[in-house]
């Protein structure tokens, strides 16, 4: 397995396995032919709002949308 | 009924108020029926997804186990609820279970925090557990749920929260009318290692061979992260499925209630009308007979 050698590098970049696998999945999706490519890319949309709480007080929520995914 | 709405000098009983009430009940019934239809069609789409996603966490449970009784210092309860209401008691159930888990896992040297998904659990947990809330995530269902979204979300949770054990509380979809409040436990890699060494349920983990140059702790960290995102994916889908199911049955019963109410109102309406007709007849006949006599 060639990917084994990559592990220390993406860990060092502060990525988790989830981020890493998402990037890989996105690469695979980009390898598809049309029309499957745009279909599979449009299916995986990211949108949610996160707000962190510190000592019982909410901080301003941030919206995670498609651009923040990759 | 508001009888004072009748203008002075009118002797017969007005049926206006009852008629208005009937009209509004009929409109409400139409709305609830439409909501039921919407929920039913959404349910069908999401149910297949949820059932397919069960295959994702099952291998992990076989490998790493699901040990709800594990005793660790930093517990994080991930409560999953919906953003919208009108779906029966599923949100209160998951909040109730989360509170119970919180109580079970709190002790002098322990720390238990909440991570909340969805507006409804947020509204309920803010009231009494403000201090323990770590992270709130909402607006999940703007787009149809997909793995990328949930994995980014799981990633955010992992990055922002320190944990020894994550306990995901959600409603598992069983059928349109029954949802099982469920807790899935995801352990941090260190705890998995500790449990492996102490034997018990995870004792078999050492018998697996590890390929390549990675150490066991690295593999375990990757596995734990991936397990969490898979468990979250399934939990979010199951909860969304339960939500639609609960909404469907809630809307069904409310349209039935509206129908019952409409029946009662129609009865009152007809009786009043009949009564006023009878009164008028009596008046006419008695007037006529008085003239004759």
| Main sheet summary of chain A | 3 strands, antiparallel
Shape of chain A: flat
Tell me the CATH topology of one domain in chain B. Answer: Pyruvate Kinase, Chain: A, domain 1
In terms of structural class, how would the helical and strand content of chain A be classed? alpha+beta
Q: Please mark out the parts of chain B with pLDDT under 50 across 5 or more consecutive residues, or reply none.
A: none
Radius of gyration of chain A: 16 Å
Mean pLDDT of chain B: 88
The CATH class name of one domain in chain B reads Alpha Beta
Shape-level CATH architecture of one domain in chain B: 3-Layer(aba) Sandwich
Estimated helix fraction of chain A: 40-55%
Distance between the termini of chain A: 24 Å
What is the domain tally of chain A?
1
Number of strands of chain B: 5
Q: Characterize the main sheet of chain B.
A: 5 strands, mixed
Number of helices of chain B: 6
SSE run of chain B:
HEHEHEHEEHH
The Cα radius of gyration of chain B reads 29 Å
Organism (chain B): Senna tora
Protein name (chain B): ATP synthase subunit gamma, mitochondrial
GO cellular component, one term (chain B): proton-transporting ATP synthase complex
Subcellular location (chain B): Mitochondrion inner membrane
Question: In words, what does this structure look like?
Answer:
The complex is a heterodimer of chains A (70) and B (293). The longest helix of chain A has 14 residues, at 17-30. A three-stranded antiparallel beta sheet of chain A has the order 2-1-3. Chain A contains four helices and three strands. Chain A is an alpha+beta fold. Chain A has one domain (3-69). With 293 residues, chain B is an alpha/beta fold. Chain B has a domain at 54-201 and 215-247: Pyruvate Kinase, Chain: A, domain 1, CATH 3.40.1380. Chain B is 60% helix and 14% strand. A five-stranded mixed beta sheet of chain B has the order 3-2-1-4-5, with helices on both faces. In chain B, helix 1 runs antiparallel to helix 6 (216-292), helix 2 crosses helix 3 (119-129) and helix 5 (189-197) packs across helix 6 (216-292). Chain B is elongated and about 115 Å long. The two termini of chain B are 40 Å apart. Chains A and B meet through helix 2 and strand 1 of A and strand 3, helix 4 and helix 6 of B.
